[in-house]
Amino acid sequence: MDRGRLEAFSDGVFAVAITLLALNLAVKGPGNGTLAHQLGHMWPGYVAYVISFFTIGIIWVNHHSLVSNVVVVTRLLLFLNLVLLLFVVLIPVATATVADYLQAGGFDAKLAVALYGIVLTGMSAGFGGIAEWSLRPGRTLVPVPPDKRWAARLRFMSGGLVYLLVTGCAFLSATVALGLSGLVAVYYVFERTPAAGRIGGTAETDGPAGPAGPAGPPGSQDG
Amino acid sequence: MDRGRLEAFSDGVFAVAITLLALNLAVKGPGNGTLAHQLGHMWPGYVAYVISFFTIGIIWVNHHSLVSNVVVVTRLLLFLNLVLLLFVVLIPVATATVADYLQAGGFDAKLAVALYGIVLTGMSAGFGGIAEWSLRPGRTLVPVPPDKRWAARLRFMSGGLVYLLVTGCAFLSATVALGLSGLVAVYYVFERTPAAGRIGGTAETDGPAGPAGPAGPPGSQDG
Amino acid sequence: MDRGRLEAFSDGVFAVAITLLALNLAVKGPGNGTLAHQLGHMWPGYVAYVISFFTIGIIWVNHHSLVSNVVVVTRLLLFLNLVLLLFVVLIPVATATVADYLQAGGFDAKLAVALYGIVLTGMSAGFGGIAEWSLRPGRTLVPVPPDKRWAARLRFMSGGLVYLLVTGCAFLSATVALGLSGLVAVYYVFERTPAAGRIGGTAETDGPAGPAGPAGPPGSQDG
Amino acid sequence: MDRGRLEAFSDGVFAVAITLLALNLAVKGPGNGTLAHQLGHMWPGYVAYVISFFTIGIIWVNHHSLVSNVVVVTRLLLFLNLVLLLFVVLIPVATATVADYLQAGGFDAKLAVALYGIVLTGMSAGFGGIAEWSLRPGRTLVPVPPDKRWAARLRFMSGGLVYLLVTGCAFLSATVALGLSGLVAVYYVFERTPAAGRIGGTAETDGPAGPAGPAGPPGSQDG
Description:
The structure is a homotetramer.
Chain A: H1 3-20, H2 35-40, H3 43-67, H4 75-88, H5 91-101, H6 106-135, H7 149-170, H8 174-190, H9 195-198
Helix pairs in contact in A: 1-3, 1-4, 3-5, 3-8, 4-6, 5-6, 6-7, 6-8, 7-8
């Protein structure tokens, strides 16, 4: 198993999942009230769409940073990657549930956002599994030194902890919990060197990714 | 982050979005009037399908021209690319809304086409963000000389301005506005050297894209 | 524009279109008669699914044979490729219409199969456009000699003529016309050297496609 | 035809099919009972989702192991690959049918799981066809010695036999048969060297898949 096909398959899943998100925003067509009225009542759908879109986008960026540093693809890595994708693929459905139930209010709205939090927590756990796997010696191009492993762990575990907080917080206030998951996305968009990017030292923000094949070691090969 | 995976993910999103467009043309099945009658009433769907199909196709071509010239992939570029894709992914839903409401007429038809214009304006803005990013020194293989930057800006901003015009024009006449967005697609299909293609000087129309890896600098590496 | 990304985007569209075909076979769920009864009435769906699946599969194979021989990617080629994909993407919808209306009988069944024939004819025309483009000197690795161009044209035009026949024949008998489109697929599966495969002399059936990059000229580079 | 595009197309189909699985878990929205009640009644959907997700994931891993060892891509291989994909693409629909009918009980539940078994048996047969094809001399990088061919055959046929057992067993107990198909997935996740992985001797679990192009013969080229 080479890394390129792991990336190609994962990219396909990320691409389909992120595109399916938009289907939740379809209106019902004529005969269901004016279009303006329908659109006005869909605001939870827009908010949830944007949050989920950037959440999947960011996890894709971090997935790539992590995988591009991997030198050996084992069956365990493939299994951990499937666990990550199992939850990524659930994001469009969880997003649709939030969009449908947030305005209904009551326990249904809280449960919908809690479900969303569980799916994102599962995604984080899958990602954490891959990151943990990559910390072992000989698995990445630029290994993480033993004394920096706990720092790396803290970084990739913190996202999962926030999503766990989203899940719990949802039972207090669905809107606040959804906003919190949005803040995670905003944080990662503006954070210059993400947790995953620094694991193994991939200096993705300043190194040139040359267009020609034999450029340099990290990330020089297209998938 | 290497350019290849940015292209692979974007290609996946473009491919799924362009394929989902056709789903809007599904008929309702037996028991909803004769098939001929159903098909006859779907003409706004066919028109919107063809316009959206070529619009996505052209933005894909221009996206590639632009990205193939990039030598360094930063987090900011990835974020700008996500903004572009955020709107690309909305095109199938906006197209379906136009198809559903154009024949209804009245304010709903106008609002549907205005929405379509907003989505295309957003897409243009996302593309313009990437193009603007690429104008800075050291980011592209063949840099744009400082004295030609405003000319390049004008070229990639003009598409967005037309889509803004589509949005405003929709409130006067939904059909005229939709036709205008179709003219943009026709223009870009026949325009030999598109705005994006000339940024950085990628001579895509006359240079051979060799099949072997070590061919030449621009566009010589498959994604 | 390099050939690899043209292939990657087209492959994505082919893959999504071929996968969406299966969605037509979904049953309605409990409360719509026994499952056995529902499945028994869906036989036109199974037949149409298998025909469309292999039709898309074969056009994908031929598309690759043709494109792998191309040495220069022009805007015109990209436009012709979009015309091909415009019709490929309609196949799942046309297949669903056949599956829904074939048992209804009468004019609706005939019209449904005629529509299917039109979509396949359009696909053939798009493919023929690419093939015609590739006949010009300097566009393919192994050019077609001038005296063999008409033979090549006849080969890639014959598929389109049969689909035109399917369209006309549908108004006489929907079932016979559908069967005829199935025969085209069967013919191309068993035909050892397809029309497209021989254009430009790509000897795809006997030449080894080496796994390493610098293997040989035709088809040695992965997309 | 080169191997890379065979992989890219197949990866696309696998990725779309695995993502569509999750759509079966969508809830009906407000006005259909409490969300908690709806979610509680969907447990067959969750179970079927997880089983199908890992089943597709595993067949993807095995498909890659097998194909990465192939040195010559013939039309017959492409046809056998299409047969495999024909059934892979049916998995989301078969999974939805199981999810819908398992709780209904009676013959419908049994028939739904039997259908699921038939689709998985077909997928296994398609995979077995590719594996059988690869046993012939000159088709793989590391050929299987003649005296080990029957051992290889037994390994890739055993999966199909279990799925045939699932199909038959479904008429006795739908739940037990579904559980059996889940055990196959669990078995392949934990099985260190799968049937397909060992055909042709691809030592995928211990060999480094180098990130640079000119690494080594098996699996050194990204798709």
